[in-house]
Design brief:
heterodimer; A: alpha+beta; 7-stranded mixed beta sheet; 32 strands; B: alpha+beta; 5-stranded mixed beta sheet; 5 strands; about 35% helix; about 15% strand; globular
């Protein structure tokens, strides 16, 4: 086994896009012809003289990736195969264009590092234009931890091509061999003849276009000087001064503020509504279109007050599942006609186990939780005429939102522009464009720009949740080794489903079921739930086998297996940092671990918890976490992601959960939905394993997977109680 | 309903027109264009909207503009002076104490108030004082380190 079986199962394009899930997009594979040469002049008209480099995607899924309709630049369509591009102007500034977006994972900085590295150019003179459907190449979205493995690579390729072109130019100018020239710090130097020239000087008055395949040789990670270093956040100053304009901060002259009337519960339908009083209020725009009711007013308060004054009758759906009985509901309600996934390596025999073998099983559950990004969904929509729409919004999929808008308003995608200002977080929760569509609907009626910012309660209710799930695990233990493994996940998802441990007989299944609330992607997807179940059960098996849990895991991870060997390394590194087997334990304290790999990242987290048996309070005292995802691009940013993911993970592990009944969310606010705060943050030690021989992986997701099982296993170590439901201690260890 | 027509913000007097019961946060953001203070929850639970009223940290989302009208309001926009960052702002940069940074303004304003009240807080005191500020990205340890660093810098102007 040399590859992550879970990863290789997914028909993954360059952007981690699952084509099988969205067959309706097939028409986008058709691509019209284009010509570079005809448009070159127009690009330079907008950008000024200099050099333009386009990176042409060659991957199998490139057609799909570049297929999202026409994007415009200065009124001209961009070429279709372009996955990234760069302009170096005669003014000495570099602008790079990417469809990826910044939601706090610090890719504006790490992608700038990629350009600075290969272009050999000062990072402070590099600007990234991100997630603007008119200016940047099509991109399926910023998800799946794909930005670092794909976009970082592409920007390096584009930048390397630009550097080579500049060297060629200098060689021509000096009538010398390009091999004798070197590029560094924005200059080409001819050390033999002791001369150098700035890039900008070389480009004076020139218009050069280069179209490069994505296969040029790059600087190997071992020789990096900008990538691999802790470059600070490139625009950090804008954030500490409050100057940065997030989507919810955008404004236009004459703008109105929107507000939507929400149903009281999921599944509710509108029986009657009287919007007449609101319609007669001066300055108020009221829209009633199907089940959509919303207003636009000159102030936020005014819009909220107007919606509160609209009387609507709703028919609610009784008898819906609640957070109390949802796990039974999942198992009793398979989704008809939709098969799940099954993977088998030598199916378990089930019955014919060897004599003396021990058969064990357990059921784990995970509750619905909310992403609760601190900035809720927000959009500012402007119609420039009846057929042209521009929307600024916080989304991980600006091109996806453009498509949603185009469909909602029956416009060609050419007529819709979506811009994504760096946003106040997402965690997988901002893949959709509902807020953009709502703002645009209101703006269309108002004939003025409308800004809509969801309230916290709306974000907690009408965004989508991390799926609820049930996981059944069965295993056979024989002579201290696991000989059979069966793993069934109901509804929560297939990510991280496969066991990476060396077990001779394995079957894993994902079962699609009906589900009561709107659900979707969340940081690391179901890998968190699946690792919670698997790594907790590994702990149960280790205890049954009377083997130290670390040793037990290492016994199932072969050093010489490329995948298992990498996972071994992070377990060993985290164990050493934690002092596993060496640290003394205070009374009521326990130690535990959890880890795995997903999206090309390997993580192991060790936890020390303290349980106050009297009060039932559980606190995480300290964590040690080790991560290896190939070559490290920015060690400071990576440490930040690792620390943050672990702290966020404490919430889902211990206390975050959505309470719901009959389609109503019962705790849609921070006063009722507990998220990790300062007092929940333990001491965290981070170990980075920098594998310069392996291409860098994304790290926004997988680092969250180890913390929940580590905490659960530590609680078991402390008090001997096995907790199999996330969250494990929603009200401490006492029943509410 | 009584209206409020004047507001003292960052040492300047602004002419506004707002209902006295309107949320200070939305007056700052929508009428004055001071968008550094953020909406996060609307119930004083997350701290993203923190401003200082006469030097005391307050949740502007649940502060009525009528209450604020009689006080000196300080927002994140006023901390940088003549192109020089406030020591707390500088410390947040130096520690890289942010990811999406949506909580950062509120964190910085709360920390500024803390350091005025207690120029040499322990790490526990920092965590305790800032418990009402949420960072969903989980940068708490770096924020504590940043506040600690700012305190060490010892250049915090005394109120």
């Amino acid at each position: 086994m040399s590859e992550n079986p879970a990863a290789s199962r997914i028909p993954e394009g360059p952007e981690g896009f699952d084509a099988a899930m969205e067959p309706e997009r097939y028409e986008l594979l058709a691509r019209p012809a284009y010509s570079f040469e005809m448009q070159r002049r127009d690009f330079f008209k907008v950008l000024g003289a200099g050099i333009l480099i386009f990176c042409v995607a060659k991957e199998a899924f490139a057609l799909q990736e570049s297929g999202g309709g026409r994007r415009q630049f200065g009124g001209q369509p961009l070429p279709k195969e372009i996955s990234a591009w760069l302009h170096l102007g005669e003014n000495g500034m570099v602008t790079t264009y990417t469809g990826k977006v910044e939601v706090g994972q610090n890719v504006r900085t790490s992608l700038s590092q990629a350009v600075a590295e290969e272009l050999r150019f000062p990072i402070e003179k590099i600007t990234l234009v991100m997630g603007d459907t008119q200016l940047t190449p099509y991109d399926a979205g910023t998800f799946g931890s794909r930005t670092t493995p794909t976009m970082n690579l592409k920007l390096r390729q584009v930048s390397a091509a630009a550097r080579d072109a500049l060297i060629e130019l200098a060689a021509k100018q000096w009538n010398t061999d390009a091999k004798d020239l070197a590029a560094a710090d924005g200059k080409i130097t001819d050390s033999r003849n002791n001369r150098s020239v700035e890039y900008a000087e070389l480009l004076k008055g020139r218009q050069i276009t280069q179209n490069i395949p994505a296969e040029d040789p790059l600087i190997p990670p071992a020789q990096w000087t900008v990538e691999g270093t802790p470059v600070p956040k490139v625009d950090g100053r804008d954030f500490v001064t409050g100057k940065h304009r997030y989507p919810s901060d955008q404004a236009l002259p004459g703008m109105l503020y929107g507000k939507v009337l929400r149903p009281p519960a999921f599944g509710a339908t509108l029986s009657s509504v009287d919007t007449r009083p609101a319609e007669q209020t001066a300055g108020l725009v009221v829209v009633h279109d199907g089940d959509f009711i919303g207003v636009a007013a000159p102030s936020t308060d005014g819009a909220a007050g107007a919606v509160a004054g609209i009387h609507a009758e709703w028919k609610t759906e009784p008898g819906q599942p609640s957070s109390e009985n949802v796990f039974e509901y999942l198992k009793d309600n398979p989704e008809p006609g939709r098969g799940g996934e099954q993977n088998t390596e030598n199916p378990p025999a089930n019955e014919a186990s060897a004599p003396g073998a021990q058969r064990m099983s357990a059921t784990y559950t995970v509750a619905y939780i909310a992403h609760a990004p601190l900035e809720p969904r927000a959009a500012l929509a402007q119609w420039t005429d009846d057929n042209h729409l521009t929307v600024w919004t916080g989304t991980q999929r600006p091109f996806g939102v453009r498509q949603e808008l185009a469909q909602a308003f029956r416009l060609p995608e050419d007529n819709v522009r979506v811009l994504m200002p760096d946003t106040g977080a997402a965690y997988g929760g901002k893949h959709t464009g509902e807020c953009a569509v709502e703002a645009a609907r209101l703006a269309k009626a108002a004939k003025k720009p409308v800004k809509l910012v969801w309230t916290r309660e709306e974000e907690f209710t009408w965004a989508y949740f991390r799926p609820v799930g049930v996981i059944d695990v069965r295993a056979t233990l024989d002579g201290g080794q696991i000989t059979e493994w069966e793993f069934d996940n109901y509804n929560s998802g297939g990510a991280g489903l496969e066991s990476f441990y060396a077990i001779p007989h394995k079957t894993t299944r994902f079962h699609r079921t009906k589900y009561p609330l709107r659900q979707g992607s969340y940081r690391a997807l179901a890998a968190t739930a699946n690792h919670f179940a698997r790594e907790s059960f590994m702990d149960e098996l280790a205890h049954a086998a009377k083997v130290d849990p670390l040793e037990f895991r290492l016994n199932h991870l072969h050093k010489d297996d490329p995948t298992q060997g990498r996972l071994r390394a992070v377990f060993e590194a985290a164990a050493e940092k934690f002092g596993w087997g060496k640290s003394a334990k205070a009374a009521g304290h326990g130690f535990g671990m959890g880890g795995g790999f997903e999206k090309a990242g390997n993580v192991a987290t060790f936890a020390e918890v303290a349980v106050d048996e009297k009060s039932g309070d559980v606190s995480v005292v300290r964590l040690a976490t080790a991560f290896e995802g190939g070559a490290v691009v920015n060690p400071d940013g990576l440490r930040n992601q690792l620390t943050g993911a672990n702290i966020m993970g404490i919430g889902g592990a211990l206390f975050e959960h959505i309470d719901f009944a009959n389609g109503r969310i019962l705790n849609p606010r921070f006063s009722k939905y507990r998220v990790p705060r300062f007092s929940d943050a333990p001491k965290i030690e981070v170990v980075l394993l920098d594998r310069k021989d392996i291409p860098p992986a994304g790290a926004g997701e997988s680092p969250i997977m180890g913390v929940a099982p580590a905490i659960g296993n530590a609680i078991f170590d402390a008090i001997g109680t096995r907790l199999r439901a996330m969250p494990m201690a929603p009200h401490g260890l006492k029943k509410a | 309903m009584p209206r409020v027509n004047q507001l003292r913000v960052n040492g300047k007097t602004y002419t506004i027109d707002a209902d006295a019961t309107a949320s200070l946060l939305f007056v700052l953001r929508d009428q004055l264009g001071l968008t550094g203070s953020k909406y996060g929850c609307g119930e004083g639970q997350c701290g993203a909207c923190t401003v200082l009223l006469n030097g005391n940290p307050r949740r502007s989302c649940i502060t009525k503009v009528g209450t604020a009208a009689t006080r000196e309001i300080t927002t994140i926009e006023s901390l940088e002076k003549d192109g020089k960052l406030h020591p707390v702002q500088q410390a947040f940069l130096d520690e890289g104490a942010m990811q999406c940074a949506y909580c950062t303004s509120g964190m910085i304003m709360t920390a500024v108030a803390l350091l005025r009240a207690n120029p040499r807080p322990s790490e526990d005191q920092i965590a305790q004082y800032m418990e009402g500020n949420i960072c969903r990205c989980g940068t708490y340890p770096r924020i504590i380190a940043a506040v600690h660093r700012a305190a060490q810098a010892g250049t915090e102007p005394r109120a």
